[in-house]
Amino acid sequence: MSSVVKAGSKLSQRRKSDIKWGYFFILPQLFGVLAFVLFPLVYVLVLSLLEWDGLSRATFVGLSNYTTELAGSEFRNALSNTVYYTVMVVPTSVVLSLIAALALNKLRLKNFFRVIYFAPVVTSAVAAGVVWLWIYNPDFGLINAYLQNWFGIKGPQWLLDPKWVMPSIAIMSIWLSMGFYIVIFLAGLQGIPATYIEAAKIDGANRFQRFWYVTLPLLSPTTFFVFIIAIINSFQVFDQAFILTAEGGPADSAVTMVYYLRDLAFVDFVYGRSAAVAVILFAIILALTLLQFRVQRRWVHYE
Amino acid sequence: MASVATTKDTSASVESTSRAGRLVASVLLYVAVTIGAVIMIMPFAWMLLASFKDLGQIYKVPPNWVPDPFVFQNYTNAWTSVPFATGYMNSAIITVTVVLVNLLTCSMAAYAFARIEFPFRKTLFMLFLATLMVPEQVTIIPLYIIIESVGLIDTLLSLIIPYALFNAFGVFLLRQFVRSLPVDLEEAAIVDGANRWTIYWRIIIPLIRPALAAFGIFTFLFQWNNFFRPLVFLNTIDNYTVPLAINFFRGQYATDFALLMAGSAISIVPVLIVYAIGQRQIIEGIATTGLKQ
């Protein structure tokens, strides 16, 4: 009897000390999450309701920062630039990386090619951007030089022409991030049981039918995941736009959402309006993430 | 294998043409994949080759790819004309400190979330997971105000402290790994009277070394390439990191592409070395988690 009680009290003592240890172990990261994410997140919501330049007294202005921004031409330009960029980058990246993954999947030199396709992902957008700056140079850049030389075509002005700025940034971004999506697609393809494809083969399905009716549906959770991640990344685009252009490019054609909110906060010092843009950006990204979770859960359920 | 079995009963001529067809398809596939690879490599090759040219060669149309003569001047010029030396130093200080502190604090939190019972464990872990959805651009203004209010704007600490003490990705990644370990070893240690720190340091850390390596490489790459937050927080040239130095460089020598290519090459080299060493961990880490920082 007494030994059981003793063991019990020893156990509860262990539990008590575990509580202390538990908090001790999470303390540094817990402090970080509270001080550098949660507090700033609440702070940005509050800021978005204020008019403040960071120096003088802040005044409460309600939702007027949001209404100003949503109605303003600058915000609309930034939003439409970002959406335009997303529309160019996301479908192209998804389709190209899916094709590349399918091509690489059965290759004997798969790992070798995977390393090459992935290399731009580890490179900084800034360092790569400087190289692309030259590739896009209208007079001496690689693209126009060869367009002229091989086809006799006079190439576009690329980063100097407002119409071509976003497509130029998009092309570089596709190059920069495709390897990331290829790796995810390759992992998805690994997860498809070979027996399904064999069964379709025995039933007489040709290569295209096997892809269309077996591989593609089974890959759909991965495809959807890549789609959402690509959209989320697109909405956060900044580095490429900043490096490839000067001061937002001709006619502000390179000003994305993040570019715009940085300008508002750290060039114009209108913290409230910048915070409102940040909150709108966050709402868009949050909605996309939650959509991803919901759909993913349903898919997992089905299997 | 199955395809061989199904084609067995068809005539020999069909079999040989389909084999030839397969060979052609396979060759075409290799050609296509190689063209893709050449496109991916091209900007790097162009950068490296151009960094050894003089200005006369740079502005040649059509361009000649191989430098003639090879010029090494761009590298010495780039290294001395921009604050690359201090940039390297600053980037190294930030990156190394953040990686080391992240490895320690994230693995500590990961161990606690995976193995120790304490109140609100689940809620707090969900909190960490939820913060994966908050992009850092969204909180940049309040963070700037906080950093400014403690007098750390334009210091390396403004980047080190927030990154070192918060990495939800690391906590999540390492927790998954700790959970997959068998508990027997830890239980034996508990019976022997070992405390939690001893278990963490002597048992868990050695076992999760592969995950720590992958996470360390991810953090290194992210920190070394990081641009947005340093651009906002650092103003003085002496405090610039490598990407900021390149950005500054781009503004100063906008037309001297040879110099720019050398500068870009200088900044990419450490990354390519880390990639060459850790490419398997990096790629497999992404394939299993679907995440990067």
Model description:
The complex is a heterodimer of chains A (303) and B (293). In chain A, 78% of the residues lie in helices and 1% in strands. With 303 residues, chain A is mainly alpha-helical. Chain A has a single domain (72-302), classed as MetI-like (MetI-like fold). Chain A has a two-stranded antiparallel sheet. The two termini of chain A are 51 Å apart. Chain B has 15 helices and no strands. Chain B is globular. Chains A and B meet through α1, α3, α4, α5 and α6 of A and α1, α2, α5, α6 and α7 of B.
Structural class of chain A: mainly alpha
Average pLDDT of chain A works out at: 91
Radius of gyration of chain A: 26 Å
Largest sheet of chain B: none
Structure class of chain B: mainly alpha
Under the CATH scheme, the architecture of chain A is Orthogonal Bundle
Q: Under CATH, the topology of chain A is which?
A: MetI-like fold
Total count of helical runs of at least 4 residues of chain B: 15
Beta-strand percentage range of chain A:
under 5%
Strand order of the largest sheet of chain A: 1-2
What is Rg of chain B?
26 Å
Strand content of chain B: under 5%
In total, how many domains does the architecture of chain B comprise?
2
Tell me which CATH architecture of the largest domain in chain B applies here: Orthogonal Bundle
H/E topology pattern of chain B: HHHHHHHHHHHHHHH
**Ends distance of chain A:** 51 Å
